[in-house]
Amino acid sequence: MQVGIDQIGFYAPNQYLDLTALAQARNEDPNKYLIGIGQSEQVVIPVTQDVVTMAASAASQIITDDNRDKIAMVIFGTESGIDHSKSAAMYVKRLLQLPDQIRAIEVKQACYGATFGVQTAKDFVRANPDKQVLVIGADIARYGLNTPGEVTQGGGAVAMTIAADPQILALDDATSFRSEDVMDFWRPLYRTEALVDGRYSENIYVDFFKAVFHDYCAQTGRTIADFTALTYHLPFTKMGLKGLRAVLPEASEQQQAILKANFEASRAYNRRVGNLYTGSLYLSLISLLANAELTAGDRIGLFSYGSGAEGEFYSGTLVQDTPQLNLRNWFDAYFKQRRECSVAAYEQQFQQQLPAHDVLLDTRADDARFVLTGIRHDQRQYVDRQA
Ligand code: CAA
């Protein structure tokens, strides 16, 4: 029996910052951001969106009357949680009217959380083939105004159902993972912005990729020649390129050209959304599916990296030929209707944090289906505008 990704959905708010404008405001050469970092736009998150609303919007695209009752577990990966105790999964469960006979849990290990969800879901579905698991990766990447990390901010959510006989990607059994206690990136509980040792984090990322990729190859007897595409966690798209370059010399010239072309397809959407931490690898997978010319049976590699640090390399084979026009059409429409934020408007929204007391928010500028309307009696108030 094959188990894997059956459906996949994405959501990010409808406003963005142009990074050429940001470069000008920060007295940087725009090519540093566009080429050196590999980002051209970044999502701006309004105060009326958080990981719960974004996750509910992403998941609402793939939860229908056909699969709602089959969902037995929600695994919500995030490092931008909204409560020290209650899981974000519980709110999503209610907003999507999922059944009560369900496990709803939040997991955290930086940008790795959703991958833990996928692997746990794979094992669960193997044992319970008539059930499905909803896996969510949702985050808001914040480093601060005028910091080196600012150009690598962003946010959004990816939701996936893991099921038997999947329609998108059948997961292979083999996987290689590794963890080490390192301080490359972290966010103490009292901070809303991450702390990062930037260059160090890049080096650890590449070291982890090489270690888990080669361990996977040793376990399976596969080589780089077995992959039509390698996808990466993309905190910024140049990072994935550095990962790819670390193993490209192992491929033939012809294979190198294929991997490079498919890498370009896999970073197209991330370039315009920015970092969504644990959802980034899966946005890159969507970008590949929507933009590359691949055929059913092609093997895709997935490298997941969460600072702190945990890395995992695993793989799957495509169930259908790509490009998947439904995904491409969705993203074409999304990018077309997004509105640009000036640098001043972005800075103002960046600084507008939720207060630590009851508040009523103005949601008029937010056209999302799910919005945060405020805090009442210390409880976040969520509204489904289609309810
Ligand atoms: N034209 C073209 N390229 C240019 C350029 C120009 N005019 N000016 C500079 N560049 C290039 C530089 O040569 C450099 O390229 P390489 O990385 O290939 O050497 C690149 O642009 C970046 O320049 P700097 O190194 O000078 O950039 P910086 O010091 O301002 O910061 C950064 C870069 C460290 C990535 C910083 O943005 C950062 O800290 N980001 C957050 C941390 C991060 O994302 N780390 C990734 C691994 S951790 C992870 O993956 C988990 C996660 O999600 C956070």
From TrEMBL:
It comes from the Bacteria. Gene3D superfamilies: 3.40.47.10. (3S)-3-hydroxy-3-methylglutaryl-CoA binds at D29, Y143, K242, N275. Residues 2-165 form the Hydroxymethylglutaryl-coenzyme A synthase N-terminal domain. SUPFAM superfamilies: Thiolase-like. Residues 256-353 form the Hydroxymethylglutaryl-coenzyme A synthase C-terminal domain. InterPro entries: HMG_CoA_synt_C_dom, HMG_CoA_synth_N, HMG_CoA_synthase_prok, Thiolase-like. GO terms for molecular function: hydroxymethylglutaryl-CoA synthase activity. GO terms for biological process: acetyl-CoA metabolic process. The active site is at E79, C111, H233. Keywords: Transferase. Belongs to the thiolase-like superfamily. HMG-CoA synthase family. This is Hydroxymethylglutaryl-CoA synthase. It comes from Secundilactobacillus paracollinoides. The lineage of its organism: Bacteria, Bacillati, Bacillota, Bacilli, Lactobacillales.
